[in-house]
Amino acid sequence: MTSSTKRFELFATMLEDQEFIRTFLKKSHSLLLRNRLLAEELLKQAGISFYDKGNAGFFIWIDLSPHLRSEDTQRDAWAAERLLSARFAQAGVIMSTGEQYRALEPGKFRIIFSVGEETLREGIRRFVQCAQM
User: Fold this and answer.
1) Confidence class of residue 5 from pLDDT cuts 50, 70 and 90?
2) What's the confidence (pLDDT) of residue 125?
3) In Å, how far from its chain's centre is CA 115?
4) Which of 3, 22, 60, 121 is deepest in the core (most CB within 10 A)?
């Protein structure tokens, strides 16, 4: 029996276990909700606006348009968004830009909150610090 066959059988067994699935989904939902609420609180404390109507998913749309420096990019706000994204990357924070998702206006970013609490706190601290530079 190959290792991929063994893995398939293991996952099939897990998926057939209804009690496991119920427990897993309940815990997953609880952890995601906790992290979403934590991320929202940290964003509020930092004065970062975000889309607060979401109730599913693993990310929050945040608005960093006030932190775009279009004067550095000859008034091209989309280029300023890319520049801000590059500054985040230099600080060790990778976030998807709105441009990647065809946002209607520059300055929107996706923050993923489905990570450990320490990672979430540190990531938000770093990008807030970067955005305010």
Assistant:
1) confident
2) 95
3) 9
4) 60
Structure tokens at 113: 């909150």
In CATH, the number for domain 33-131 is 3.90.1150.10
pLDDT, tens only, 29-46: 999 999 999 999 999 999
What's the pTM value of the predicted model, to 2 decimals? 0.82
Q: Is pLDDT above 80 for 1? A: no
Please state, as a whole number, how many other Cβ atoms lie within 10 Å of the Cβ of residue 113: 25
Q: Are 59 and 71 in contact (CB under 8 A)?
A: no
Alpha helices in the chain (DSSP H): 3-16, 18-46, 77-90, 117-131
CB 99 within 8 A of CB 106: yes
Distance CA 77, CA 80 (A): 5
Domain boundaries, the chain: 33-131
